[in-house]
Each structure stands twice: as C-alpha cells, then as structure tokens.
C-alpha cells in the first residue's frame, strides 16, 4: 500500500479507504480491520446515519491513533425533530458529540458534511466546522454529495476568511457512473482536494462473482451488461479479478481519486487490495470506456471542440504547452 496526502494538507492516507457501512458482526469487522491495517491501510470511513455503524466501529477498533477515522453528519438523528438534521450549527454540534461518544474517541480525523443542505447558508456551515477544528474535536473537513459550485464557493470563502477549507470530496464514481467528470472532479483537482469515491464497483455489478452479491438480471441495461463483460474480459486477460480491474480503472482516471472499498469478509478485502498492484494498459482502458460510452455534454464537449480551433484561439494555439486541469 502506498500513501497520498489528504487534499492540500499534510495528512497521510492510504490509497484505498475501508468503508464500514456494511459492518454487522463485531468479530468479522475486527478481522477485516486487522487485515486492512496489516496491508498498510489506515483510513476508516463511517457516518452517523449508518445504523449502529459508529458504535460497532468504536467497539472493535484498536490502535485508534494509527487510523484516520472519518465520519459524517447531516442526516436526521430524530425524524420528528426538524433541527436534528441539516448542516446548521445546532445539528453539527449535537451530531459531533454523538459521534464522539459512539466512536469512543475525543477527536475525529475527517468530519464530512454528508449532503448539501439547501436551507443552511454555506457560511454558517464553514464557520461551525472551523470552530470545531479550533476546539480540537475535528482535525480536517470534507463534503459529500454536493454540487461543484457549492463546494467551490465554500472553499473560496474559507480561503478569504482564513477558515478551514474542505480538503476532501466524497462522491459516487465508477465505470458506469461518470457524472463527476463534468464538474465535480475538475473542481476538486483545481482546489487540490482528495476525492474519495463510493460505489466504485457499481453495487457489485462490475465485480462479477467476487462481489458476493446477487445482481438482478432483469434490471440490467445493455450498457450495464457491456461494461460488466468488458471488465470480465480484461480481468481474464491480465490475470486479475473483475473487482481489481474496476478499481484500477478508477485509479487510472485521476491521481485525486481514492476508492472506498466496502467489504463484508476478509476474502473480499484481500481481493480488492490487489487493485493497488494492477496497472491497466491504454488499450485496456479504451476498451473499458468504449463498452460504457459517456459524454461530458455542454460545456465540456463544446470547450474541447473550440480549444484547438484557430477561430477560437488563433493559428498557433496548438503550440502552447499550458496548464490543463483535465
């Protein structure tokens, strides 16, 4: 396992994050965490809304300070109380205290905003997060499932006002779901953010038999089937599992991307960890992406067409070796 810096901070994180949303049995969860740590993994991802997940993680984790623990707030703690959900200060303070108790720790390494809350000004959220950082209860902050313009505005405000910016973005991303390539991924790269991605195996569809999950064949589209077949074909050629190929494709796309692997057994974990040793050829990448066509749409496609055109930037524009975010 190799390591990366978390966003523009100095925090070292492993190149695969262990998602704990599916943890149910304490003993198996402990074995999975131990195997992950033995392989060099150091990031555990959970959330206040993952059932009894924080409690379970808090009960089984050992060597706490060797792990980077990330949890999230936003989703409701009490469906009958309007203020028990959202990104405002009251819910942040109470959710954070609840998470600290459940995880049996006095600080959270990465505290994630779980979902954009349209009713809370982003200024309030950023100030409340910064206050918690200054109090030592959280060390770094990230945001999950929000529009690119919201994240960009939040980080610009943080820079102007000398507050803690979002160092990480958490979003869904896989060969079949590439929406983040339109706005979110370029935005994150431009701010130097780490992008931890959930659903990297498309609910097991891209992992084949190694996912341990049954796929409802009746719900699959022709594109789903083509992508799954392409992943399986590449896997057979390179002597890897489909899950390893799907994860390797993600790692190929951007240095900012860090997949979150969610497993229910040590065997699945070991299989997923094999992705860090796999490098896909350009031909394999082309075949995978051809099986699941994706279009950026406007303005991405339009800008790409205009960039080399003399009408837009002049006859010698193609001679410029400049910065390109994507």
Report the principal-axis shape: globular
At CATH level 2, the architecture is: Alpha-Beta Barrel
Oligomer: single chain
Kindly, what is the distance between the CA atoms of the first and last residues, rounded to a whole number of angstroms?
Answer: 26 Å
**Mean pLDDT reading:** 94
- Write the CATH fold name: TIM Barrel
- Order the strands across the largest sheet as they lie in space: 3-4-5-6-7-8-9-10
CATH class: Alpha Beta
Number of strands: 10
**Main beta-sheet annotation:** 8 strands, parallel, barrel
What does the secondary structure layout of this molecule look like, with pairings?
Elements: E1 3-5, E2 12-14, E3 17-19, H1 26-38, E4 43-45, H2 53-60, E5 68-73, H3 89-103, E6 108-113, H4 122-134, E7 138-144, H5 148-160, E8 166-172, H6 184-190, E9 194-198, H7 222-238, H8 242-253, E10 257-262, H9 266-273, H10 282-291, H11 300-306, H12 310-313
Parallel strand pairs: 3-4, 3-10, 4-5, 5-6, 6-7, 7-8, 8-9, 9-10
Antiparallel strand pairs: 1-2
Describe this protein's structure:
This protein is α/β, with parallel strands linked by helices and 326 residues long. It has twelve helices and ten strands. The strands form two sheets. It has an eight-stranded parallel barrel, surrounded by five helices. Strands 1-2 form a two-stranded antiparallel ribbon. Helix 4 links the parallel strand 6 and strand 7. Helix 1 packs across helix 2, helix 4 packs across helix 5 and helix 7 crosses helix 8. The radius of gyration is 21 Å and the shape is globular.
């Amino acid at each position: 396992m190799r390591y990366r810096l978390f966003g523009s901070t100095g925090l070292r994180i492993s190149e695969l994050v262990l998602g704990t949303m599916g943890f149910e049995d304490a003993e198996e969860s402990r074995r999975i965490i131990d195997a992950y740590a033995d392989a060099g993994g150091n990031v555990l991802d959970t959330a206040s809304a993952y059932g009894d997940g924080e409690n379970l993680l808090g009960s089984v984790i050992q060597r706490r300070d060797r792990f980077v623990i990330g949890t999230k707030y936003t989703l409701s703690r009490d469906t009958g109380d309007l203020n028990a959900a959202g990104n405002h200060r009251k819910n942040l303070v109470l959710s954070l205290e609840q998470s600290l108790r459940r995880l049996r720790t006095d600080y959270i390494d990465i505290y994630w905003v779980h979902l954009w809350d349209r009713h809370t000004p982003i200024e309030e959220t950023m100030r409340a997060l910064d206050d918690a950082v200054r109090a030592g209860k959280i060390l770094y902050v990230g945001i999950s499932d929000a529009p690119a313009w919201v994240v960009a505005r939040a980080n610009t405000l943080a820079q102007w006002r000398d507050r803690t910016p979002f160092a990480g973005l958490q979003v869904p991303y896989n060969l079949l779901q590439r929406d983040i390539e339109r706005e979110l991924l370029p935005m994150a790269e431009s701010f130097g953010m780490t992008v931890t991605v959930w659903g990297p195996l498309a609910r097991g569809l891209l992992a084949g038999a190694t996912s341990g999950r049954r796929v409802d064949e009746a719900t699959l589209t022709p594109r789903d089937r083509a992508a799954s077949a392409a992943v399986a074909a590449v896997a057979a050629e390179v002597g890897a599992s489909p899950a390893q190929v799907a994860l390797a494709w993600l790692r190929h796309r951007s240095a900012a991307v860090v997949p979150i692997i969610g497993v229910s057994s040590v065997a699945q974990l070991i299989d997923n960890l094999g992705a860090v040793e796999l490098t896909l050829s350009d031909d394999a990448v082309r075949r995978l992406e051809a099986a699941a066509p994706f279009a950026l749409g406007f303005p991405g496609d339009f800008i790409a067409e205009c960039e080399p055109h003399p009408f837009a930037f002049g006859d010698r524009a193609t001679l410029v070796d400049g910065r390109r975010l994507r």
